[in-house]
Amino acid sequence: MISEFHTVQPSASFKEVKSIVIDQKQRVLPVIDQKGNTVGVITRTDLIQHLGVADRASSSPEKPAQLFERSLSALMESRLPKDILSLLKELGELAQSLNLSIYLVGGSVRDLITLKPIKDLDLTLTGDMDEFIKAFALKHPTARVKNHPRFKTATIDLDNGFRLDLSCARLEYYEYPGAMPIVRHASIRIDLQRRDFTINAMALSLNSEDYGRLLDFYRGYHDLKEGLIRVLHSLSFIEDPTRAFRAIRFENRLGFTVSRMTERLLETALKNGFITNLSSRRVMAEIRRVCEEEEPGPILKRLGELGLLKCVHPKLRIIPKQIERFRRVARIKDWYRLTFGEKFSPVWLVWLLVLTDELEEEELADLVENLDSGQKVARVAIEERKTLKSILRQYQRIREFIKPSEADRIFSDLSWPGILYLMAMSSGDPLSRAGASYLTYYRLVKTNCDGKDLIKLGYHPGPRLHEALIFLREAKLDGLVNTLSEELALAQELLKSGDSDGFDKNDVLRETVDGRR
Ligand code: CTP
């Protein structure tokens, strides 16, 4: 029961009602006339019906769900790596011994059935989660546990790199408009019912008594086989507009199709401004996830076609030359992965830079401000944007090979995403090749001699020496000197030439090259 709530008059506008029922999540809105009499109530379902979309999306929460069950234990045995399998069994046995139920849920079940690698383990417990975590921590004293009792969620990071995302089966509701969700225990069915798509709303029991039993109340297994993305009910996108982006992301990642009804619901939500309402922080989190996908290009294109990119920024759209650029980023990404592996991948930021290429600097800065993580990297790239654009302008028409020393000067102060962006924007051109050579080779080149060697020869530390060392490295990059003795000879030549203001590099180089000929 709540004692503080909004009411409206019979003359209230749709916008006013929408703001209370959807944005502030007050599910039931009393309508009071001028005399103070309650003349009716408006619910969320009324709103969606008013928008003209029938509730045929799927089984609605009101309708009893039809449980589909089957055993996936053979699939688990054949598909999951041994260490994950034994961990899942251990979790099930522990839950069983504490008289709790534990399930693998959401994306993990989807990935298991579609034979995709499982990254994180999403688990849902029904029962006392604290008791379970304490017992688990006793068995794994080095595991790092982060408990969020208020939300009844916890993460456990194990030494072998696995992360367990635990939550308590729950039903979210709001104590009063705008309040944090109060989390209550609820059965696994109700927990699954609040999820985004049928394919993400299945649970796999891990308890030893029914280990491997799939619980599917919403035809998720069927939709996985049919290749369909379907919401569980018609208010899904209104409840959580980020799902619009998720639908398109999964569609592309899995090679599925958004069902016709779900697409209609998405379009209705978009047309009625529910998605524009989304906070920039949440939109940007989704855009980052899109950019981290295997193939962001087609997803971004489809987001553009549906009009969803406008919810990120009104000026954001996909123009034909963008499509070609996306293809180039994809090639750069493949090259990057082959060359450097997965260790540090700033490639998602390159997608973002190419996507937002036509935005003004301040517009992009506003967007990036809303990125939760990776802000540092993002800022570097934003601050670099002017430099990147001017490099592109300067080198776009150059057809000749760029000397290694010049490439080193162009790229050495830039961030990796910045360099990859330049490579994508100038793909096939000398600038792009120079970028690749810089990342794989030039940046690692060191001279054989250093400042100490030169001081030993009697030269004094100072700017002249510093400049000579830089010059030596450039000469080495360009293949003019190779061995220690060649370097020392060049250094001596450099430092004896010119007056105290500096030396004429060209003169010295000419002499060195002539000498070597
Ligand atoms: N979920 C949801 N609505 C959202 C986000 C998530 O219902 N807006 C639910 C889905 O059941 C999802 C689960 O929470 O499967 C876990 O969310 P998340 O980790 O974001 O998604 P995954 O499905 O695991 O996708 P990914 O493989 O991209 O991590």
Task: Give a written overview of the molecule.
With 517 residues, the protein is of the alpha+beta class. It folds into four domains: 38 residues, no CATH class; 149 residues, 2-Layer Sandwich (Beta Polymerase, domain 2); 162 residues, Orthogonal Bundle (cca-adding enzyme, domain 2), CATH 1.10.3090.10; 66 residues, no CATH class. It contains 24 helices and 14 strands. It has an eight-stranded mixed β-sheet. The chain has a two-stranded antiparallel sheet with strand order 1-2. Strands 9-10 form a two-stranded antiparallel ribbon. A hairpin with a 5-residue loop joins β1 and β2. The protein is globular and about 95 Å long. It starts with 13 loop residues before the first helix and ends with a helix. 34% of the residues are buried. About 3% of the residues have low confidence.
Task: Output the keywords.
517 residues; alpha+beta; Beta Polymerase, domain 2; cca-adding enzyme, domain 2; eight-stranded mixed beta sheet; 24 helices; 50% helix; 12% strand; binds cytidine-5'-triphosphate
